[in-house]
Amino acid sequence: MFYSFLHGAIFHGRQKKIFTASQSYRLFCIFQNNPSILSLRLFSTTSNRHSFTVSYLINKCGLSPESAFLVSKVVDFETPDKPDSVIAFFKNHGFSEPQITSLIRSWPRVLLSDVKKTILPKLQFLKSKGVSSPDLAKILGNHPTILSRSLENHISPSFNFLSNLLKSDEAAIKENVEKVKEMGFNPMRMTFVVAILILNFITKSKWDRKFYIYKKCGWSEKEIVDAFRKYPSFISVSEEKILKIMDFLVNKMGLQSSVIAKYPRVITQSLEKRIVPREESFIEKFVNRYKADAPELLKLYQEKFHLSNNWKAGISRLQRL
Fold it and tell me: Which residue has the higher pLDDT, 182 or 284?
């Protein structure tokens, strides 16, 4: 079983305070609207500029007050000249106001960009490769950080790789695209592309063999498809690794096979370097540490997880399938 702990720290005393974004913004508004609360000297030129940035983000960019306050910690400007030119640039290239708002919220530094030097060349490159303006607006609206990537070192090489891949077997790619769509993948997510790439490189016989192995490990066909939709790369793991990890998690750790199917990423991790060390760390921190005060915890662990006297023997059984 995987455990996730959420730890919140609360500081006491006069000097250590923690405020949420909404609380900070409300305090900011109170101080701005009621300068008598604090000395007017508290608000220097820097704070006035910050106030302008927050107002601009709310009124011109469509951000909520809380989002604007958070974004203002990342970007700060005295005049509207540069952000105005950025917004106008995207509007002229077919971006809707909600798309621009989403873009700014996800990548605030875009407002400080030199559109002619950094943004325009990337849009021109993508359009030259056949990406239409509406599609471009949708893609960048959902994944604005693409614009923060280097055109020469990242965008162009990645696009050319995918382009060459598509040209290698166009009919097969189209077939795999339809297959991935039928599986319920979201075309706007990266897993959609990863799934297509995997299907393009894995033969049908290997695909069927992986399904056979996972079914023998206790997964239903629906669980395999659902796992592929969550984390496509798990299907390309070698049979030997699948068997070792499944046998360890099921026979030694006592996990239900259906539980593992909900976390397919674990199949891609190293058994020796990641999975086993985590189990050992868990035992040391939460079992052995308290065995004197709570011996029943150790007994429970042994009863629950040591279900097999020799868990490695299960590997040979599965390998004979």
Answer: 182
